[in-house]
Amino acid sequence: MSEILKRLDQSLESRKQSDPQSSYVASLYGKGRDAILKKVGEEAVEVILAAKGVDDQHVIYETADLWFHTLVMLSERGLSYEDVLNELARREGVSGLDEKKSRRESAS
């Protein structure tokens, strides 16, 4: 699984130098962060709508779109899937309630 994410990460990074006329991802980068965030939001709504239905394949398709556009957002910010995986690893075995409490306490 991480090999797919690694290849996607490399591809997204290379698209930063591509012609927006020939690359969808380059066109998103060219439109800026707000356009990328809007696309992530649209994809999140599509996942929710698909999940309310009965077609599991549609849920998978829409989730793949959401993950892809989230990776674009991370890349635009100079982050990668590895940063997210590291955070998930940090949280592993920690109660969700305890984890949220620690974030609230550190924000104070």
Give a quick precis of the structure.
Helices cover 80% and strands 0% of the residues. By secondary structure, it is mainly α. The N and C termini lie far apart (37 Å).
Chain-wise SSE layout:
Elements (H helix, E strand, L loop, with lengths): L1 H14 L8 H8 L1 H20 L3 H21 L4 H11 L4 H12 L1
**Number of contiguous helices:** 6
Order of helices and strands: HHHHHH
Number of strands: 0
- CATH 2nd-level architecture: Orthogonal Bundle
* CATH first level: Mainly Alpha
Radius of gyration: 16 Å
Keywords for this entry:
108 residues; mainly alpha; Helix Hairpins; 6 helices; 80% helix
Describe this structure in words.
By secondary structure, the protein is mainly alpha-helical. It has 6 helices and no strands. The mean pLDDT is 92. It starts with a helix and ends with a helix. It has one domain: MazG-like (Helix Hairpins), CATH 1.10.287. The chain is 80% helix and 0% strand.
